[in-house]
Amino acid sequence: MSAPGKPVLLGCRSPEKETFTCWWEPGSDGGLPTTHHLYYERERLEGTYECPDYLSAGRNSCFFNKNHTSIWVNYYLTVMASNALGNATSDPFKVDVMEIVKPDSPRNVTLRVEERKDSPCLHVRWRPPSNTDTKSGWVTIKYELRVKKDNSNNWEEYMSGTQTHFSLYSVSPGVVYTVQVRCTLDHSSWSEWSNTTYVKISNYLQNERPFLMLISILSVILFITAGFVLIMKRKSVKHWVVPPVPGPKIRGINSQFLKVAGSEDVSNALIFNQSFPPIHFVWEDQMEEYLNVTENEDWLSFNSQKRKKSLIPACFHFDSEIHCKESTCNQNEWEKDEEISKVDNNNKPFTNTGYVDFQRHVENVQGANVKHVDYSRIKEVKGNNVLILETENIQISNIPEDYHRVKEMEGDHLVVLQKQNAADINYTDCALHKPRKPHVCTESSNSGYVDTIPAPPLM
Amino acid sequence: MGKSSSHHFVLHCKKGTMKKVLFAALCLVYLELSMRVVSAPICSYGQAGCHVPSLADLFERVIQQSSRMHSVSSDLHSEFEQYFFPSKNIMGKRKCHTYDILTPQDKENAQRLGREQLTEVIVTLLRAWGEPLSELHQSMSQDQHQDFNIYSSNKALEISDIVHELKDGVKIITDKMRLMGVLSNTVGYNSPESLVPSSAFYTQGDLDSMDHHDLLYCFRRDSNKVKNYLRVLKCTTLPELGC
Q1: What coarse category fits the chief subcellular location reported for this protein (chain B) (predicted)?
Q2: How many Cα atoms occupy the beta-carbon half-sphere of A180 within 13 Å?
């Protein structure tokens, strides 16, 4: 049994700069019941005072409420332990509330995972400690948080300033994150770290990736197959993209035939198919002239201007200007004369021989001793357009019975034949006649037999 | 560019480009003349050509400065204590020279004080510390025997500068508040005598380390007061800013 041992003041703390609490450590009690009292003196205050509240803060503590708390003044505290045998007084303890501020931890730390397209992010929110008064500006709280991944011991710390929220962007899915927050009041001591809060970032975001992968793989396959198809059909693609320029063709000649046939056949074919003058060329020019077969003096002169590119049936209209230098229109004339006798037919070769009547332009013939030969016999028909006439004079005294002369044309379709009266025939007129429209010949009048070829349809 | 070379240049250009060049040159000259001032000065009196900051901006600025002032002085004091007096809890019994300046000791008193008196307290405190701080800096920079002084005298200088700026800043704020009608002229909180800082306290000779320590201790406390009072003043004057 002895006097109590000397108590020791451990320290004081103010959580909000408005109140404060001090704790002491009692010494040995000496085997007797010992009481402790805290006495204090204060700067700018006369007297010694005892602790106003021994209970609120627990054992061996003294709580100073707002009325008893002053800032920026020194408190000098002593604790006295006393028992029946004596007292013991602690060493004085100087305290200025300004220096002992340590706030409580922030409250209600919540974590929220926001799933964004590329990467998730973590939003942390918390509340300030309940007893701090920031509204009046008495204290300014600054926060700090720390984050830990899974079970590692490395904390990453971030300053949050005065905000009560914070966002973490470098967050990986499938990882457990632990977050803690603490605060300080105006450069005071830091509070304790808040309770730990966990969150696990879910993995399901990664399911979107396989979907995208699938789509990309499918499109790649599509491209590859399209490429293959293009390569296989490159010829037709090439044809479509760059159409070939048509090469020159000779009508009536099959290039295949040329390849196969022998040289004789080839030359025959060429000659046969050729036309003098090159009528197919002139065709394009539309410089066609018709040869009109007529006995009507009212026929108009020929016109070597543009004609309609229409077809002339088997009964021809020959409208021509024939320069006859010789007594005969021999085949040379035919062949040399380029203005004449464009027979506009439909590429059918002559299938019948007949008499062709010409009207010759007598005026153009100068000084030539022209024997008016009215008729020529067609010796040969070459190709589609060339009539090779016989050079001998053909005296026709009488027209064979199976031929008639066309008397006149009535309308577009009527051929009027003349009764046989060959002697009266006199064709000296080589006057030019205007061409008539091409006629479609049909079997017509009852005056006789007309040998015709059925006319091709008009174009 | 010499005259000849510019002529040379002009001669070599066609007419169209010459016009463009002249136009560009004129533009540059105009810009040069009109943009003489690189940054607009902040002035609170609304002089022509100045950007006048708002009251909120001014408060923000002074609060930042006071925070800086307190943290530097606090660091300096703790360094000093570590260096000279490793054992804590010294019983420095000498009074601070600003002892006689009455200041609110807690939140309720500070709020009850009102804007005018609170402002006056702030200004009084700042005024009281101008001279002692410059003396402290001088003393520390002169006393090279202690390593502490070598490394820390610039901090004393920084504190001195900040106090000087803060004085001006608070004056500007009070003027602006008076303009806005927020502040009225009332009876001072402190008696006139206490407004005169007891500079005699320090002119008794050179300051020694104890003096340094006391000064730092006192100033740490007073800078904390100034910081707190400024915040309270801001939040009562501009509550909408969210304190």
Answers
A1: secreted
A2: 15
Long-range contacts of B182-188 (CB under 8 A, 24+ apart): B182/B115, B182/B237, B183/B115, B183/B116, B183/B119, B184/B116, B185/B116, B186/B114, B186/B116, B186/B117, B188/B117, B188/B120
Q: Cα(A344)–Cα(A155) distance, rounded to whole angstroms? A: 104
How many other C-beta atoms lie within 10 A of the C-beta of residue B146? 14
The complex's ipTM? 0.75
Contacts of A139 (CB under 8 A, 6+ apart): A16, A17, A103, A132, A133, A185, A186
Cross-chain residue pair A135–B103, CB shorter than 8 Å? no
Q: Within 10 A of A226 (CB to CB), how many other CB atoms are there?
A: 10
Cα torsion angle, A139, A14, A75, A57, sign: positive
Encoded tokens for B94: 């000498």
Q: Can you say how many angstroms the Cα of residue B126 is from the centroid of all Cα atoms in its chain?
A: 10
The gap from C-alpha A450 to its chain's centroid, in whole angstroms, comes to 70
User: B95 — contact with chain A (CB < 8 Å)?
Assistant: no
Closest chain A residue to the Cα of B241, Cα to Cα: A135
Amino acid at A368: A
Residue type at position A211? F
Is the CB of B107 less than 8 angstroms away from the CB of A96? no
Q: In tens digits, what is the pLDDT along chain A, a chain of 459 residues?
A: 888 889 999 999 999 999 999 999 998 888 888 899 999 999 889 999 999 999 999 999 999 999 999 999 999 999 999 988 888 999 999 999 999 999 999 999 998 888 877 778 889 999 999 998 888 889 999 999 999 988 888 999 999 988 999 998 888 888 888 999 999 998 889 999 998 888 877 766 555 667 788 899 999 999 999 999 988 888 888 888 888 788 777 776 666 666 666 666 667 666 665 555 554 444 444 444 555 555 554 444 444 444 444 444 444 444 444 444 444 444 444 444 444 444 444 444 444 444 444 444 444 444 444 455 556 666 776 667 666 666 655 555 555 556 666 677 666 666 566 655 444 444 444 444 444 444 444 444 444 444 445 444 444
pTM of the predicted structure, to 2 decimals: 0.58
Closest Cα in chain A to B237: A136
A304 and A345 in contact (C-beta within 8 Å)? Answer: no
Would you tell me which residues 50-79 of chain B have a C-beta closer than 8 angstroms to some C-beta of chain A? 67, 70-71, 74
Chain A to chain B, count of Cβ pairs less than 8 Å apart?
58
Considering only CB atoms, B106 lies closest to which of A18, A44, A186, namely: A18
Contact A186 B110 (CB under 8 A): no
Residue A66 with chain B: CB contacts under 8 Å: 106-108
